[in-house]
Structure formats: C-alpha cells, structure tokens
C-alpha cells in the first residue's frame, strides 16, 4: 500500500488586501483533499519571515490598495523561485495576480513593476462587476464554474500564454476572445475572488492534481449541495443577462423613455 | 432645524438639506435620512459642527454591534437628560447630520458611526467618549482592515483632551489603534473572532492568545487591564468595575447583550451619569430595530439575529452553542456575494447538530453548512423551519434581506 499523499497549503499575507472570503479556498482544498485521500495541512503566512516551503500557495484578495504590500512581502520570500522551479503551485487571485504580473496599475492609474511570475501585463479599463460563468473545459476536466469579478482592469496575456477560463458570462481579461485569467506553468491566475475553490470543488481538484503532479483525471466525486448552489447561481445569471440588443447600448435614461 | 446662532453658511446648508429631505420623502424615494444631510454637507462641510453644537456626545464605532450598542448607550445616558440618536442606522456623516439637525434641543447624543467616517465625525461632534467595539473584515466595502486601523490610529491621536476612548481590550487591533488616544478606558467581554487579529498590527509577529488574554512576543504589547469586565453572575450577567459589581439584564441574547451593556455603562459613567440608573434603563431596551425581540410562531418563540460578516456569524454560532438553543438560518439573495462571508464562519462548531435553512438563497446555506459537517435540513418557509425544531425558543440567524423580510412579516402579524 502506498502511503497517503500529503500537501501543505499556505495562505499568504491575507490581511494586506480586501478580503472576500478568499481564505475559504484553503479550507476547500483541505476538504476536497480529505475526500480524495490526500492529507492537507493549512498554514497562514502573515509576514515574510514566517514563509514556509509549501506545495500550494494562495495569494490575493480583491482591492487595489494591497498590491504593493503583496509585492514587497513576496519579494522577501522564496515564492517566485519555488513556483518557477515547479516545486509549488500558485493560485494568484486579483490583487495577487497583479502582484505576480509583469506590470500592474496602482490606485493613481500609474504602471508599476510586478514580480514577473505570471505572463500578463495589466492596463487600466472601466469598472465592471458581477457574477461570472465559465464554459466547461474538457482539457482541464472542468464543468461550468461560477465566480465573481469586480475590477477596472484589462489583463493582457503575453504571447503563448493561455487564459485559465473561457467565459460564458462576465468580462474577464477584456482582451481577444472571452478569456479569463492565465494558466502558465504552475501559476493559476484569475480575477475571480472570494471562495472560488469552495464554490467550485473541481477547481480545487485541479490545484491538488497539479501540486501532486498527477497526470490521470480524478475519479468522479459528487458534492450535491455545492453543485445545486452553483446550478441556481448559473441559472440566475442566464436569466439576468438577456441577449444584448441596440436598446441596451443606449444610456439608461434614454432607454427608459422608449416604449417597451 | 436652523438656529439663529448658526453661522450663515450652516443655516443655508441646513435649509437646503431640509428641503431635499422633504422632497425625497414626498417622492417616495426613501426616508429622507441621508439626502438632506448629504446636500447640507455639500453646501457647508462644517455643518456637523453646527448641528452638534455643545451637546455631550458619545460616538460608537466598530465592525459589529454598532446599532445595538448605540441603542444601549442612548438608554444608559437617558437618566442624564434627553438624548438624540441616529437610530435609523444611517451612520455616515450625512446621516448623522440629518439626525442631529432634526433634534437641536437634546443635550446628549448617542451616535453610531461607520468605521471609516470616525475622523470627520469626531472632528464635527467633538465627543466626550468614543466607544470602539471590534475590528473585523467585511466583504461589502472596498477598504482593507489595515487602512481602517490606520485611520483610527490617526483619529485617536487627534481626539480632544477631554474625550475618553472606551475600547475593547480583548481585540488587539482596537487596542493598538487607540494607543494614541489622550485618555483610554478598557472594557473586556471576550473576542469571538480572532482570525483577523492573528498577527500584531504593530510589528507583524504572530500573537499568543489564551482563553482570556493576548500578548505579542515581538513587541511585547499585551492586553491592557480592563476597567470594566463582563462576568457571569449566577444564571445571568454582571459588570465589574472599581471593586463593585452591577447586575445587567439585557434582552439581547448570548454574550452580545451584557458586553454591549458594559460599554454603555462605561460611556454613561464617563459622562457622569449614575451607573445604577443607567443599568436600569439598559434593561428596559427590549428591541433594537426589530432585532432580538422574541416573536411567537405556534408553540415556538423566534429570536432574530442579523449577521453581515464572519465575526457576526461567529457570534450567532456562539449564541446557539452557549445557550443550546436550536438554530434556523435564513438567507435571501442580495447580489453576487450575498453569502460569501459565511464560508469563513466557524459552522463546524455546530457539527452533528440539526440546523434548518430557509429563504431564497437557501441552496448556498445548505452547501456551506454541509461542508462544515452540520446536519442540514431544507425548509420551504420560515414557519416550517422554526417548527421543525422542538417547541421553545429558536435562534433565527438571518442575512440582511432575510432579516428585513422576516421582521416585517412578524411585525405585521403577532408580536
């Protein structure tokens, strides 16, 4: 009998950014790991001196204010080396994606240098918020997922990089196609903040599989309660987003005057 | 609403605000509790100073429990005279201007203040006391905890010399932020949610927590000795202060009631109000904006709680665990992230217990509680959720829209 595989998951600098239950992602990895016979140890790293050698790092949260703090803190750790050398997987969310980008945008709209781990350059754009639905992706063994976005950024992928998701609903990277986030080596970058892995256990599976360098797909594992919650959200998004017509392009003040 | 002694600009501001508030009400666009203040502030940014006048004000801030504690403070101050309070919960500068402009006569004020508005509100009202409850993350606002704490620390340093900061010494973040206050009084009632205070805000070291205290091995800060301490007293609660003990009867369930009561007594004492008289008035507070008062459902009594962040949910879970009362969770939709905060709450403390979940967003509640190992039951409506439990008192923990809907429904029927 082979010994039970075990992983260490480290949540990095959670207080530096605006939280939206991102820490529930670590708990989701532990839960999904337990169901799959993988023992997962959770660690929270709050300052560079407490950095640990983990197999999975969770970095980010929403909010422009915290990016420089993340860049400064991460720069004093081995994170970039460990992820670049394939020793660890990084899930970089929103402000975390900015921190590991090549360039990001500060609160004043100025370009700042990132840690260069994710092959993206971030540009200012207009504000967009809402619920996001992804398209199923057989290559990553993912069904349609649910997530939230709230940012005023365009995330430009560098040549050769692929988005993490393709969207059915939502704005995503605002580049070519309907891409969202970036998947490059051991970096999974996304703007979808909040309890993303808790809402989408299959994405937790993907992170675990990458951390274990597991090639074959996981056996199917149902989680009926969370799947139902996701189904209801997706149905709600599809109901609330009618096909865009000429009417929708008018300013709402003008549209209101027109007979329906 | 305007006084002859107000500066001309403030009078113009108040007249504009009053007209706008009336217009807003007449158009059915709301209670008019913010728009008037907002316009008045635009005409004169100093208008809060004019409407606050020279009355003696207690400002209440913190992430959780502001409305409840403000109501308790208002009651505790009342033996000292008439009290104005922004009891509608409009707790930013504009709402406070509206509340104070509507009552220029009361000599005392109990003002609930949003965390990030503490600076301008303290400058405008020149309070005699600032009550600081806790500091915890919220998901609905785009402000990091760190920047709120820095705002508090800066504000604390600029409080008037005769103002006393009444702070929760069990919260290391609050304690640090108000170190710079000219005068400080400590209240201790416990901290339910420590996950936001794991590291020292001053030096970044991981703190040592015991059941009743905290200290930082890095910079050697530790929990200041409290001046007011909530203690169990027989089957009820009391507050110990200066060698004496005052019994507290508060309708608010769990420890939230006596802890809020302790802050209110400390505030009353700071303003020279007799503590025993204040305690008596606190016990008469039966209800805060529809919260806490028991409602009858058949042979059951439902007590409503309204929760908005993990710290709030942690408190509700603590009420259910410490009182042994059964729990109903009621969730309605209010946007994409309406249930996100619940993913981090310690529902595993209820593992093995039976909890009913109801409301338009109940699928999320079922998923979150199921993941925490709770035995969850789905209920199509509140009545079947409550009566699913054995007869007696049931705690109904609601998110904001579910709370609005259910309290309205209850108030419309039997009380």
Automatic annotation (TrEMBL), chain A:
This is CobB/CobQ-like glutamine amidotransferase domain-containing protein. Residues 25-198 form the CobB/CobQ-like glutamine amidotransferase domain. The lineage of its organism: Bacteria, Bacillati, Actinomycetota, Actinomycetes, Micrococcales. The keyword Ion transport does not apply. Keywords: Glutamine amidotransferase. Pfam families: GATase_3. Transmembrane segments: none annotated. The keyword Cell membrane does not apply.
From TrEMBL, chain B:
It comes from Humibacillus xanthopallidus. This is UDP-N-acetylmuramyl tripeptide synthase. Gene3D superfamilies: Mur-like, catalytic domain. Transmembrane segments: none annotated. One of its GO terms (molecular function) is ATP binding. InterPro entries: Mur-like_cat_sf (IPR036565).
